[in-house]
Amino acid sequence: MSARTTATAAPRTGFPRTVRAAVALQTLALFFQASTAGALLVSSQGALLHDVGSRVMYGASMLYVVAAVVAWRPGGGSPRPILYASGLLVLASVQVVLGIAHLPAFHVPLGVAMVVLSTLDLARVLTGPAGARPRGEATRGEVPRAA
Questions:
Q1: What is the Cα–Cα distance from 122 to 145, expressed in whole angstroms?
Q2: Which of 90, 115, 131, 138 could form a Cys-Cys staple with 142, CB 3.0–4.6 A?
């Protein structure tokens, strides 16, 4: 008797490296913006750093949208990261408008909210989707079932 084995495609779990990298870059850029916001108040170089950082942060937000779309469509991933990426890009757009209009009463709280949201998104992407583990793999304290 010959045993025939076929390769079955397992559902993809986790997030592609490109999405993880894009979220990490966006989060780092937002933390850089937060640090240069303080420097903006005390020096002229702080203003230049904050201006350059805003462009990097906006570009990182656009890169996150592109990475999420690429991971979803041809990669077979979830479309949910596109929603998160698009939301953060909209917030970044509002943030740029508020910064140019010199409205710190709205610009600063929105910046804090963006740092928090991006950090939470990074934690979500790094830990992977809830309950996503290969079939037959047990979690700590759980006895694996026989297949």
A1: 32
A2: 138
